[in-house]
Design brief:
4 copies of one chain form a homotetramer.
Chain A: H1 3-14, E1 22-23, E2 39-44, E3 49-53, E4 59-60, H2 65-77, H3 96-102, H4 113-126, H5 130-142, H6 151-160, H7 162-173, H8 181-193, E5 195-196, H9 198-204, H10 206-209, E6 213-214, E7 219-220, H11 224-237, H12 243-249, E8 254-256, E9 261-266, E10 270-275, E11 278-279, H13 286-299
Helix pairs in contact in A: 1-13, 2-4, 2-11, 4-7, 4-8, 5-9, 6-8, 7-8
């Protein structure tokens, strides 16, 4: 396929959507980003890389980080981790704390905030220096050592993330956090503050394309079965309230973040990262969602 | 691949699970089925059929019928239908009526009971003789004219299906049923009472394998995009409360029924039907779920 | 106290509120009532009666009927009835069906619709001709034989009361209705359609003022303890979503109806009935609520 | 009435209930209390005091403190306070965080934990030294200067009160806390740790018996209307999940605490305090609840 042409066509078409969304401003630091940016990177199984636009610009990966900490923890703890967090879609906003209360402190899945906090708590229990471990892991997966936390974004979240603190204490009250709430949240806010470019992100997702083998070093980090499961979790739970809509329209496992990034993949074939800061009402990138839908439609390739 | 061998291995392994589930008895008629039965049928894209065990025995397809009425209605109404029913996973039991109330009468998706009732209501509004239309459609898809309603099962449901009546009146109170509750439920109970064998069911699912083209007649019944969407809905919403668990363990779009049947597919590759009457606590066939998990693991092929 | 003066002052003050509410129109028959009407009747323990305005005009008592069927059933079944219905306030609209589902079919209290349906079901199980029994009881309590059902209001509700049918079937699915849903609803819609004047209603409430003794015949219909309990239920559950607000502002046990009537009492002292058809958003009479608040404030007498 | 005899009869009867409940142990410090204790104090409008048993023993008043901080804040802020907290019963446990989420951060009433935290936040905003103000107020109301915080109980709650921290941060996320969560909780845990005897507690409740006038100093602290409202809130919301049951069985406004104390009153007539550490499953004193029910039954006097 003529990917460069496809990327160019997509970029042209989505550019008409500028202005339809809003840059996340609940964290003051995130609100400073210039809205009219669009980056796209396609990374095929055999290592070809196709890019368009701002694909080298670093952005705050935010919730996309949950996929990486989840895979890191899953590799270390295996099936045991599913005692403390489920794999069911969370439904909608309606469910957040209500659901956690209803289900007695077991978050529905590891990609909603409550579940990600439990995963981060496992990370804190597993590694002596969990923050360093996160960076080391991302350097390995992306093949780039130039990936860092943005301390002012992390600090900004710490000062205003009341709801995450509420979730943390609520989990603690159900005895589903082992470590101090403050410590878990410190790591969590740092992982969310990581800055990566589309190019780096697409590279890091290759682990899931290659069924658990990191392609540069040929290390097996996850079993095939574990990778299948992570891809399945991304498919059903990766897009907040739009999991169904996204599966419906795009048909790829992936994960979005309020920084405007989306990472996705077709297992065994390619990974993708797209970024544009304006978000729709459900917190997903307006141009990013459209770009992915166009990509699977134009290439005729999705998991369905 | 040596499919006959794989099916035989699967059958041997799952046979150790007899006795771990319970035949559905909330409808007296269903409770009469002998529990120790197991049928499996694999139907490949190019028309090869592999069977094992009770693959010719007819059973009550129950909720699997929702997939067929949905595709029939979608083909006729197109995107307009999504104003009255969503495409998001429903989460868990917790959500049933609560969610319907919370979301003001718009069911989360067309595969939960409330959503299926709305779909059946559309069917009633669209066809002069909706029950005949359902049979005509199933005859076409399966290539078998020997598919009928079981009137005593339908009657049994009509007499005891209080919760479905409650859902119907509740939808009506939100002005999301156009026809009389009694009429919609009559059609609904009939569609659920349809009896098919694994072989017929696997054949009928070929429509979704072939991206919307009915392979025997080469008629296009659904657009490619519509088929992608239906497969996505089955993936995220097809297994009651176990949508996530199933996606996680099996990785195929599909739909289960309390008669003990499960239909599933790998788009572009094959369809499957499996049946065994004993159900787990969430209402899915114990042997059927395990058989599907084994099949995707042994063949190494799933959407992920 | 100069009650005639107090009633006159109240009537003058509340008349400024005309136009702030809306006549119930969800039942077509109810929507035909002329909005600018106001009736008030005070009935003291020793039988003095003070009236103002349209106190002889008959109106649809609607949910006020729940108090009478409840007392009738309680007198016959005693404490046993509380196995099937609770005595806790229901909180808000949020809770209706959700709560019923959450609490497995046991309505929170007998004055919300679900609870009233269970009470009516008990009535149907207890009396051979439950509709005749209701009228007989109301004739006894009010001392007037000129109290009837309004058949066209009952029929109007039967045709449009989808939500009540939903509740009925939902209760039935939890095995908390003994009789057919249609039969229970027929009696229920009839009891709601009863027409009484403020004067008749205030007289009928004297049973609760006199701690369970019907004052005209000196018959004891309820024990003192039963009467205390019924008054307590009216206090905490009598005003839909405004139970707290009403207790807070007025401080009397009572019950409102969407026909615009409110009946209330100060145990051991007096009963009151007030009527004006315009309702606030929570379904209580605008002028009626204000009149009661003014009455307890001006007389300085409430349970608190 | 022969109150000494009545108290003696009650004490004899409730003593058979020892062992049916459990001392609160979620706070380690509270678990140290010896279970077989029972104190009762009746304080009439004209200042007569009747006591029985351990009526001079100090105990942790816990949630009973909410009534005092509420009255203190209400006196200072007046009606404006009801913008941030409601006056509706909260229904049941089901509602706690779910309800707060559903109602966008406005707690249903000031006597559930979330509402009490908002009230304490108002206290922190109103007074320079809120902790000193609480003690000053309790000294005034009870006529005793020997009332203090128990610092080890407060510290014990601070270390284990994860759920209260969760509520605090959740309220903060809805912008319904003005001050730091830590600061509000520090005051809150201190107010709950206050130790008073039945005698002191019954004396302090006289403010509400006297319609807002503190009887010793004859100071008017609350208007009559404010007192009516506070009594109404206690009536409908004072007993956790048993508000309805308590109103039903006892018929007095009041407030319970997990220390085993209950304070109640008949407006215009008397106040009561009863204490016994063993709690039922809903967190109310087993002997205390029964003692109050017997008292209103034996004296034939309740608000109903």
């Amino acid at each position: 396929m003529n990917y460069p042409q496809i990327l160019q066509d997509i970029a042209r078409e989505v550019s008409s959507l500028y202005g339809q969304g809003k840059v996340a401003d609940y964290i003051p630091e995130l609100g400073k980003v210039s809205p009219r940016q669009f980056g796209f990177c396609l990374h095929t199984r055999d290592g070809q890389v196709f890019t368009h636009g701002d694909s080298d610009v670093k952005f705050s990966i935010q919730s996309i980080s949950k996929v990486f900490t989840l895979s890191l923890v899953f590799a270390h703890l295996g099936e045991a981790m599913w005692k403390r967090v489920g794999v069911e879609p969370s439904g909608n906003a309606f469910n957040s704390l209500m659901q956690l209360e209803y289900e007695k402190g077991i978050p529905r899945n590891p990609l909603i905030n409550a579940g990600a906090l439990v995963v981060t708590d496992m990370l804190v229990s597993t590694f002596r220096d969990p923050k360093a471990e996160i960076l080391r892991y991302l350097h390995l997966l992306s093949g780039s050592n130039d990936i860092q936390f943005n301390e002012s974004v992390a600090e900004s979240e710490r000062k205003t993330g009341y709801r995450n603190f509420a979730l943390g204490y609520f989990l603690k009250s159900f005895v589903n956090l082992e470590n101090d709430v403050d410590q878990v949240l410190d790591v969590y806010f740092h992982q969310c503050s990581v800055e990566m470019s589309c190019k780096e992100l697409a590279a890091a997702m290759q682990l899931f394309v290659h069924h658990g083998v990191e392609p540069n070093t040929q290390q097996r980090l996850l079993t095939m079965s574990q990778t299948k499961r992570l891809n399945a979790v991304m498919q059903t739970c990766g897009f907040y309230d739009e999991a169904g809509e996204f599966t419906f329209a795009v048909g790829l496992p992936g994960k979005s973040g309020v920084g405007g990034g989306i990472a996705a993949l077709l297992p065994g074939h390619y990974s993708l990262a797209v970024w544009s800061p304006e978000l729709n009402k459900k917190g997903n990138s307006v141009l990013g969602m459209k770009a992915l839908e166009l990509f699977t439609t134009m290439t005729g390739r999705s998991v369905f």
